[in-house]
Amino acid sequence: MRVLVTGGAGYIGSHTVVQLLAAGHQVEVVDSFANAKASVVPRIEALTGSLLTVHAFDVCDRDKTEALLAGGAFEAVIHFAGFKAVGESVAEPLSYYDNNLDSTLSLVRAMNRHGVRRLVFSSSATVYGADPELPMREELPTSATNPYGWTKVMQEQILRDVAAADHSWRIGLLRYFNPVGAHPSGTMGEDPQGNPNNLVPFIAQVAVGRRERLAVFGGDYDTPDGTCLRDYIHVEDLAAGHVAALHRLQAMAEPVGVWNLGTGQGTSVLEMVAAFSRAVGRDLPYDIVERRAGDIAVSYADPSRAHAELGWRAVKSVDDMCADAWRWQSANPQGYPDA
Ligand code: UD1
Predict the structure, then answer these.
(1) Nearest atom (ligand 1) to Cα of 269
(2) Mind listing the pLDDT tens digit for each residue in 308-322?
(3) Residue 128 catalytic?
(4) Alpha carbon nearest to ligand 1 atom 38, residue
(5) Burial 120-129 (b: 16+ CB within 10 A, else e)
(6) SS3 (DSSP) at 75
(7) Is 98 close to ligand 1, i.e. is its CB under 6 Å away?
(8) Domain carrying residue 74
(9) How much distance in Å is there from the Cα of 228 to the middle of ligand 1?
(10) 198-218 residue pLDDT tens
């Protein structure tokens, strides 16, 4: 298939582009490079032996997006582009609503106009809200606890409405649990700008000496070791889930499919620190501090629908996630180069 990938230079996007190319698809990327470095592109090309066409603009730009869809002869789009930092979304809600909703509206309008009606969308387990029933199943009601989460709930709703109005659409909503890890080559991985918000990038920066100690947010949760449980999923498994969803769209009877992409296993913060320490070969320093506002104690998927309908399941372990994240971080202590 000819596939357009928005946000294809980002963390999950870049890993998915590599797998799409490996599966024989023709891929073009559009990325604003607001939260990605251009130096990922030659690394994708080196891993795949393909030249990648990259359009450097923001899909919020309706004229450019329209022109791209008009000329691209795409058969499907995978839409990753969006802002994703929870804390920033609380501080700057308008820029989150503006950017995340506008990019989806601009893209879907252009797709509709040019008859490209297959879309795989990056959603998040955050749409299960503050107090979900466990394990999280796709049928649960959606809500959110912060503006970033609301933009995901709203984008899902917009896409459902679009598909309800025109049944020729095929849309896959992928609800990611906690993506971590890196390409096993060590040449691609997560490269947060500034202070990392997420656990594994923070641990990796402690391990490589960019940060002194990890702060573990809360040791008094009602969990076996008192720290929060999350469903960490290797970014390679997640990328494979996108390829599986893209293939599924072609055969799908209903216009919309919703799939959790997780392992179904909860891992505590301290278990993650222990696993990363094993990967590095030494104990990593941490302090248990106050809870972080907005965190829920336990989050893990029921991944059975993705297995039944996509033929997909996560296969990589927490030790694989940490070994690959460490290979990436130790080979690229400062992340991707600027040039
Ligand atoms: C967070 C977002 C979620 C988003 C996802 C994107 C919140 C409340 N949720 O998920 O909406 O989709 O990132 O990747 O922000 N932790 C520490 N110390 C740290 C960092 C994290 O102890 O320095 C703990 C957290 O308290 C949590 C666990 O590690 O228990 C995982 O945190 P994180 O990686 O930020 O992911 P989520 O909060 O699950």
Answers:
(1) 29
(2) 999 999 999 999 999
(3) no
(4) 295
(5) bbbbbbbbbb
(6) coil
(7) no
(8) 2-180+232-264+301-315
(9) 9
(10) 999 999 999 999 999 999 999
User: Catalytic one among 11, 128, 148, 300?
Assistant: 148
Structure tokens at 195: 């202070």
Query: How high is the pLDDT of residue 102?
Result: 98
For residues 302 and 264, the answer to whether their CB atoms sit within 8 Å is yes
For residue 130, is it within any domain?
yes
Token look-up 């969308």 returns 121
**For the chain, how many structural domains are there in total?**
1
Residue 288 maps to a domain: no
Question: Model confidence over 231-281: pLDDT tens digits?
Answer: 999 999 999 999 999 999 999 999 999 999 999 999 999 999 999 999 999
Protein residue with its CA nearest to atom 18 in ligand 1:
216
- Supply the CATH number for residue 37's domain: 3.40.50.720
In a domain, 154, yes or no: yes
pLDDT at 339 over 90: no
Distance 98 CA to ligand 1 centre (A): 23
Distant-in-sequence contacts of 68-73, Cβ < 8 A, 24+ apart: 68/4, 68/30, 68/110, 69/4, 69/110, 69/111, 69/113, 69/114, 69/116, 70/110, 70/113, 70/114, 72/2, 72/4, 72/28, 73/2
Classify the phi-psi angles of 284: left when phi > 0, otherwise alpha if psi is within -120 to 50, otherwise beta. beta
72 within some domain: yes
